[in-house]
Amino acid sequence: MAARPMYKCFGVLLVISLGLFFGLFFGLNYPEIVKHGWPLTRCTILSSEIATRYCCETSCQTGTCQTAPSGSPGCSGLVSSIDNGYSPTMCAANSSACPTQVGSVCDGGYDCCATCCSTCESCTSSCSNGSCTQSCTSYQCNCYCCSSTNDLYCTLSCPICYDVDLEVKYASRDGVSHNVSYTQDFKKDVNKADSFFGGHTTNSTSFCYYNPKDETQILFNVNFTPWKWAIFALFGALPTFVALSLFAYFLLIRPAWNLIRLGYGDMLDAAKEGAKKPVRMAKALGSRLKGKKKEAEGGDEDGEVVKSEPEMDRPPPAYKPRDLQDAGP
Question: Is the pTM of this model over 0.70?
């Protein structure tokens, strides 16, 4: 009866591990595998430039639950207005075109700063051989927000992010020429943006890959991302391998081994019985031959010679004349 819950646990473990396996594989790795198979071609850079933009972000006092001053502008609207309405290039050319809200305080809205919970207890009982034991564990329950603010104190910062915009010309496998636009976002890493821009200057050529299903999409790098495969191996492949190994051992290998052991034991017993039968048959046959030999020599089955008593002399039969024999009485 205890085997069924164990099999259920193995089944649940297998289902969870397979879910992680396929979820991570198709979510992280499969798109890279597809892009890795895109056709290779040569791209000619028609034009290239580094584009800058503001990518504003907020830093909020979530741990202290500090409230923003009354009348502070909302953070989300402030971020959107600066990202879409200001340009670092124009700001560099004219200081009056720079956003003045950078470094100011904004209202982050509602935030739960602390959670309070009750302590609950769960107990289980187990009985064996007429005696029962009880074990209890405590856990948090009935949680609720016990400290919050409707106007979270946040500070606005607007660093510069970098994009490299390219106009590219390439020929597909069928010889058709395509002019496409390509943009790569480097976020706040200006060094990577400068390095990529230096390798893709105007009128230069470099290898690139295009999507055969949508020839407006190109990539200059289709290498696999190591951290994605590391996550897949650690949280997808390894749990699946362990679950399949346990499942195979307890449901296939162990029962098969038990059957093999039982069959091997029966074979040994049969072999032992088969080895004893010829010995017994040989002994019986030897005994019979010995008995017959003794009988032929004039002995009994126990090997003792039976002495035959001499026949006593008997009188010869009375003589009748032939004539009397023929005449009858």
Answer: no
